[in-house]
Amino acid sequence: MDIYILRHGIAVERGTPGYKKDSDRPLTKEGVEKMEQIAEAMLAFGLHFDLILSSPYARAEQTARIVARALDEEVTFTNHLMSDGNALELVAEINDEKPQSVLLVGHEPDLSRLISVLVTGSTDASIELKKGGLCKLTSDRLTFGQCATLNWLLTPKQLRSMR
Q: Domains plus CATH for the chain?
């Protein structure tokens, strides 16, 4: 299984008037533009996903929809990718769908912790997934624990330069 992990794009800062709840903060204009460029790069790579799972928070939803639109795919929203979502339940949800290729769109520090657990078995690995950054893991059998290989982790700047 190929597991791609994408952090949402640049969002409105916390505490910005008009956004009382963290979950309501959308992407900025710059965030939308950069995510569109990243989606173009993903299309140029020939990426295809059997399943796109996203946090329902506004900034992650927008990010997932930009990518899905570019790749002509659908998005499914899951509370397991919200901030402090249940990673164990996320793994079970993915396994229930049995995809060959999945894209997960969510938040930090949860995504870096997930990558760390899947690659090392603990949350101790020092991984930095920037806003709009994309990671690829592979796993023969996805479990909540050491089960995956880190193939690559690209910054948004690297992605945008490849389109």
A: 2-161 (3.40.50.1240)
